[in-house]
Sequence to fold (1090 residues):
Amino acid sequence: MSDLALAQPLQDYSSDEMMTVAAARSLRDGMVCFVGIGLPSEAANLARLTHAPDLVLIYESGTIGAKPHVLPLSIGDGDLAETAVSVVSVPEIFGYWLQGGRIDVGFLSAAQIDRFGNLNSTVIGAYESPRTRLPGAGGAPEIAAAAKQVVVMLKHQRRTFVEAVDFVTSVGFGRDGDGRPGCWGAGPTSVITDLCVLTPDPQTRELTLTALHPGVTVEQVEAATGWPLAAASDLAVTDPPTDDELATLRSLKSRTAEAHSR
Amino acid sequence: MSDLALAQPLQDYSSDEMMTVAAARSLRDGMVCFVGIGLPSEAANLARLTHAPDLVLIYESGTIGAKPHVLPLSIGDGDLAETAVSVVSVPEIFGYWLQGGRIDVGFLSAAQIDRFGNLNSTVIGAYESPRTRLPGAGGAPEIAAAAKQVVVMLKHQRRTFVEAVDFVTSVGFGRDGDGRPGCWGAGPTSVITDLCVLTPDPQTRELTLTALHPGVTVEQVEAATGWPLAAASDLAVTDPPTDDELATLRSLKSRTAEAHSR
Amino acid sequence: MAELCTLSEAVADLVNDGDTIALEGFTHLIPFAAAHEIIRQQKRDLTVARLTPDLIYDQLIGAGLVRKLVFSWGGNPGVGSLHRLRDAIENGHPHQLELDEHSHAGMAARYTAGAAGLPFGVLRAYTGTDLPSHTKTIATLACPFTGEELAAVAALRPDVTVIHAQQVDREGNVGMWGITGVQKEAVLAARNAIVTVEEVVDDLAPGGPNFVVLPSWVVSAVAKVPGGCHPSYAQGYSTRDNRFYLEWDSISRDRALFGEWLERYVMATRGHDEYMALVGRSR
Amino acid sequence: MAELCTLSEAVADLVNDGDTIALEGFTHLIPFAAAHEIIRQQKRDLTVARLTPDLIYDQLIGAGLVRKLVFSWGGNPGVGSLHRLRDAIENGHPHQLELDEHSHAGMAARYTAGAAGLPFGVLRAYTGTDLPSHTKTIATLACPFTGEELAAVAALRPDVTVIHAQQVDREGNVGMWGITGVQKEAVLAARNAIVTVEEVVDDLAPGGPNFVVLPSWVVSAVAKVPGGCHPSYAQGYSTRDNRFYLEWDSISRDRALFGEWLERYVMATRGHDEYMALVGRSR
Fold:
C-alpha cells in the first residue's frame, strides 16, 4: 500500500467504485483504448480525467479520440462524435484501427468468464434453446483477439466466474488454456472485479488471484468463484481510491445521471 | 445520315473532332461514366455539355459527379474535386463504385488493340526487355472487366490495330475471342476511331467495321488495320458533327488550353 | 435516380413480403419511422439485418413480421435486454426466429463485401469463439501468400436498405454526418435504398464531422420525415430520447403492454407526424 | 505521437538505405520536398511504391537511388512518358530497375490490406490480363461460399510512408481534404509515417470536400514545408504547376539535362525554401 492510500479515509467508497478505480489505474497516459459502454467506459473516462489526460478513447461507433463530457448512455451518443479528433465508419474502425493492430488496451465485460479468461456474452444454456438469451458479441471477439492487451471488468459472483462458459463469445486463452492461435494481442492481462484482481499465470495461463481490494478476504473471493482458485504467494492489496479519484468519479456519474435524465 | 447532318457544312472539322463527337454521342443522358484523361475525358465532357447534361462523370481520383469547367490535364485536378457531388478515396472508387458494378460505361484508350478488343498499354516488345515501355495499367484492367460496357477510343493506325497485342493490359474478349470469364461487364461494345466505328460481331466477338465516318473509304480503314478486317454488309455512315457539337468542343478545348497555360 | 415521395409510397413500392431488409444506423440516425410504416403495411416473413437490432427490430419482431434476424449485438443500449427479441428466441413468441449471428466486425465486413461486389469479405475474426459452429455465413480461408488462416464472411446484399439522413438536396443527393456506422456500405450493398431525411436543402452543408454524401443515383426513394429517427437522434436536428429507451424496458417486457403500445402508437397512427404528436415530441 | 521537426531531421531519422518507402498523393498533394530531401541525403537501394510514379519517382530513379518500383501507372499525366523511368527499364540506366507492377485497383487493395492488418486483399481484378504472369504479388483464390475465383494481392507495408497535407494542429493531428487518394491507407499500412504540411493551425478546418483526419499518434514526424508538394498542388493553398510538368518532358528526356537539373535544383539547394526560390515559386 502506498503512502497516498494511508492518507485516505478507509471504506468511504463502494466495492463498485474500487473496481472502477482499479481498472482506471491499469491505463497509462497516452495509451489507445478501445472502450465499451458501461463499466469500461466509466473506468477509461475516470483515467482520462485523473492521471491519463492524453488517453485516446476509441468507441466502436467510429469515434477516435472522444472526450465525452459525461458518460455516454449508448456507444453512439452525439457527445462522442462532437468531441472526437476523427469520426470514421464502423467498417473502418474495425478494419484499420482494431484489426490494424493500433489498440493498446481493449476493455471487456461479460456474463460469464472461465479460468482461462474466455468470455460469454451470448447465451446462458444451449445456443439453440437458451435459458437466457444475452445480447451477443458486438465488438468483443475481435477486441479480445486484436487488442495488445485486454482488461476484463466484472462483478465477482459465482454465476459469473464459472467452471466452463456456456458459449465462447470472446477468446481468452482457449477452453483448455492452450493459447491463442491466430490472435495478435496478448489476451487478458488482468481481470478486475469488485473484490480483487486476477492475472493469468505466466506458465499455465490460468487466472490467479494476485491482489485483493482493501478489506476483502481470500475466502470471500473463493466463495464467489466457480472453480478452485489459485492464489499468488505474494498477494498484494489494492490501494484504496484517493480523494481525487473518488471525487472525480462521483462528479462524473452525477453529471451523467443529470444529463441523461433530460 | 439524318436530316440534321444535311444542314451542316461538310469537312469543316478534323477527323479527331469526328472521333470525339462520335464517342460523345455513344453516351446517353443519366449514364454513369468512368472516365480517363485525354480523349475519353474530352468526349464525355462534350456529351455532358451537349445532349447529356446529367451524365455522371467519375474519375479514378475519387471524384464522383465532377463537372469540370475545362478539361482536366491530370486525373486529379482541383477542378474535379471542387465540382464533384462527392469525393472519396481511391480504394473506395475502385472498390464500391467500379467493382461494385455501378459504372454504365467505361472509356478506354491504349497503344495497341487486337481483333478481339484486347488492349495493351503496358509495353511494346517483351515485358522483360521492352522496345518501348508504356505507362502501364492504371485503372484500365478493372474498368474493362467491370463496366457494364466499354467504349474504346483510338486513332486508327496499323501499328495500333495489330494482329496480336504484345501484352494484354485490359481484356476485351480474350486472345482467342473465347469470352470474358470472371468479368461482370459486357466488354467493348464499340471502338471509335478517327476513321470509323467497329463493333464486336455478336457471334464471333471479332471487331467488325459497322460505320464509316463521312468521306472515309473501307480501303482506308483496311490499310490502317493490322488484320483482315470484317465489314458489316449494311455499313452505316456517321452523321458529321453538328454546328453545336463543333462549337461546344472547340470552345471547351480553347478554354482548356487557356486555363492550362497559366 | 432518387425520387422524392412519401414514406408510405416508398415502403409500398419497394418492400415486399419475404424480403431481406436492412434498417441501419448505429445508435444515431436509426430509421424508426420506416419501421413503423413497414409495420403499418404489415410486410411479412422478413429477414432483417442490423448490427444492433435495437428497439427498431424489437418492434418488428414483436409485431410478428420477422422470420430471420441477421445481427451482432441485440441489447437495449445502456438499459438491458430487448424483451421482444428474447421472447422470440427463448419462447418462440410470436413465432420462431431464425438467427444468423456475427460480431460487429463480421457484419461490417459482410456489408462491405456486398458494397464492393465481392462474394465474401476477409477478416481476422471469430478466432477461438463458438460463433462459427452456429453461423453458416462464416468460413475460413488460407492466405495464398503466407498460408495463414483467416475468417471469411459471406457478402450481405439486402433487397432493400433503409437509412435516415440529415439532408437531401434538390437533385436528390443525400448528406449525413456524425456517426454514420455502416450506412454507406448497407446502401451500396442493397438492390434498392430508401432514405428518410430531416430536411430538403438547396445545397448540402455538413453540420458536423465525417460528412458522407450519397449521390442521387444510388438511392431509389427519398422521403422527408423530420424526426423519423425518434427515439434515436439526428445530430444537428434532435437529441436522443434516452427516457424512451429506458421506458421501453417495461413496455417490451410485457406482451400485453407491448401489444397496446404497438396498436396505439403505430397501427392507430396514420404516419410519423401522428406518432410524434402522440409520443409528445411534436416538431 | 507526431513530433514537429524539420524535414531534414525526419528523413535522416526515419528513412534508411534499403527501405521500402511510399511517397503517396494522387496528382494532388504529392510530397516532392520529401523526395528532394531523400535525394540530398542519398538514401540508396530503395524500393519505392506509388500508384503513379509521376515526376517524383522519375527524379528518385534518375538519381540512381531506386532498386525496385512498385506501381500501377508510370506516365507524366497529360504530357507523356517519364523518361528517367523508361531509361531505367529500357536501358538499365543508371541501373537495372526491378518491377512489381499492378493496376490501380490492385495497389489500392494492397495498401488497404496493409492498413487493415491483413496479409492480402481480395478483388475482382486482372482477369484475362498478362499482369499475373509477371507479378508475384498477384494470386488467385476461391470464394469459400460460392467457389468463384477471385484475385488476391499481397499486402503492402512500407517501412516509411510520406505524405503532404494541408494542416496540422497544435496536438499533431493532421488534416487534409480534396483528392486524398490512398494516403490514409498508405500511412496506416506503414511502420512509420512522415507528413509535410502547408500550415500549423490551432484547430483543423476543412477548406474543401472529403476531409480526412489522421490522429497525431499514427504519425511519426510532421514537418512544416509550405509548397512541399510543388509542382503538384495543395487544394486551398496552391495550384498545380502545369508548366513544370510540361517542361519536365524535355528535362527528363535527356540524361545530361536531367543531371544538371538535379544538381542545380536539388543537390545544390539546402532545402525546400531554396528550391522554391529557384523555381520561381517563392511563397
Helices of chain A lie at 3-6, 15-25, 39-49, 78-83, 90-99, 140-146, 218-223, 243-260. Chains A and B do not touch (no CB pair under 8 Å). Chain A is about 30% helix and 20% strand.
